[in-house]
Amino acid sequence: MFKTIKTAEQIAEEQEQQRIEQAEANRRAAYEQEADPLFFKAQRGEATEQEWLDKVAEIKQRYPK
């Protein structure tokens, strides 16, 4: 029945962890939707490997950890 009082540092750490987890989830979704199709196109010769690598870099920049 006792409430645990969190310090400002604990709250900040939790918020940072949540931010990182959200960024990772966003990255995974973007990789699946945007980068993975380019990867498979590159494997078939329908796109270049550089296009795929550029997309991966763009996603990492969009969702930094």
What does this structure look like?
- 78% of the residues lie in helices and 0% in strands.
- It is an all-alpha fold.
- It has one domain.
- The longest helix has 37 residues.
- The radius of gyration is 18 Å and the shape is rod-shaped.
- The two termini are 36 Å apart.
Q: How many domains, in number, for the residues? A: 1
> Globular, elongated, flat, extended or rod-shaped: what is the shape?
rod-shaped
The H/E string reads: HH
Quaternary structure:
single chain
Number of strands: 0
Structural class: mainly alpha
Layout: helices, strands, pairs:
Layout: H1 8-44, H2 49-62
Helix pairs in contact: 1-2
Would you summarize the structure shown here?
It contains 2 helices and no strands.
Primary descriptors:
65 residues, 2 helices, 0% strand, mainly alpha
